[in-house]
Amino acid sequence: MWRYTQLVIHPEIQSALKVGQPVVALESTLITHGLPNPKNLEVARAMEARVRESDAVPATIAILGGQITVGLTEDQLAYLAKAENVRKCSRRDLPIVVARGEDGATTVAGTMIVAQMAGIQVFATGGIGGVHRGHPFDVSADLIELGRTPVTVVCAGAKAILDLPLTLEVLETQGVPVIGYGVDEFPAFYTRSSGLPIDIRCDTPEEVAAIVRARNALGLVGGTLVTVPIPENNELPVGEAEAAITRALNEAEAQGIQGKAVTPFLLARVSELTGEASLRANVTLLLNNAQVASAIALALST
């Protein structure tokens, strides 16, 4: 039976959007696939709190029982943190989950789509998907979505387990401007620098907002990527991070892990190999990105 009618938007978010108050979208695959329980719920709450502390309204997005939901209640967050068999939802998955009345957690691409539907301009995440190392034709839908959905995505670059140079090449092909927030290089997720160039450096939320407004005025359809380096005191040594990633990649290859299972496996394995140092770095950059995204949303609202 067809059950989907419209987005369910939390009343607080509806009110904020109506009066032009800044709202920041947050993804839900972080909760279901990115972090272990109970850390996932702790971090989801902390990200929402960081957005509120920065004078914006958080909007965590998920599909619950086939209903696209913008802004989860505390009970819904707690449910999602323990739920099993939740589908990761990119563009291709949204109609499947909605039609079948299932639970779904939105990826970067999925969150962008729903954020645009709801009228939310800014989205904070950890790292975007990209081109997988050794598999140049395995390109994340996140990169394609950035080329066609006008949402500003704030991240710490692409996940370090990916091929960063090829990821930047695809972003260029998709026409996505890559902004370095306070940096001249593309951040490498766990570490601040990759040695790879970005399109432009911005040092303030207002500079980013000016670029986003210009994009909107020109009627361009793509998104804007704002890359924020992890705080200096929390980055992993480059050698340590790369050694753990290489070993995890080799293990995934040997075990035949493919498709959607690759990224969760690699992130969990890298955490194990670094004594959870990568997990702590991940949490730090998530909170930092939420704060920066809130500042940009505030600049866009004034």
Helix count equals: 12
- The rounded distance between the terminal residues' Cα atoms is 44 Å
Order of helices and strands: EHEHHEEHEHEHEEEHEEHEEHEHHH
Quickly give the structural class.
alpha/beta
Quick one: biggest sheet?
A: 11 strands, mixed
Write the layout of secondary structure elements.
Blueprint: E1 8-9, H1 11-19, E2 23-26, H2 29-34, H3 39-53, E3 57-64, E4 67-70, H4 74-82, E5 87-89, H5 94-100, E6 104-106, H6 108-118, E7 122-124, E8 131-132, E9 135-139, H7 141-146, E10 152-155, E11 162-163, H8 164-173, E12 178-181, E13 200-202, H9 205-218, E14 224-227, H10 238-255, H11 262-273, H12 277-301
Helix pairs in contact: 3-4, 3-12, 9-12, 10-11
Task: Please characterize this protein's 3D structure.
With 302 residues, this protein is an alpha/beta fold. Helix content is 47%, strand content 17%. It contains twelve helices and 14 strands. The protein has helices at 11-19, 29-34, 39-53, 74-82, 94-100, 108-118, 141-146, 164-173, 205-218, 238-255, 262-273, 277-301, and strands spanning 8-9, 23-26, 57-64, 67-70, 87-89, 104-106, 122-124, 131-132, 135-139, 152-155, 162-163, 178-181, 200-202, 224-227. The strands form two sheets. Strands 1, 2, 3, 4, 5, 6, 7, 10, 12, 13 and 14 form an eleven-stranded mixed β-sheet that branches. The protein has a three-stranded antiparallel β-sheet with strand order 9-8-11. Helix 5 links the parallel strand 5 and strand 6. The chain is globular, with a radius of gyration of 18 Å. It starts with 7 loop residues before the first strand and ends with a helix. The mean pLDDT is 94.
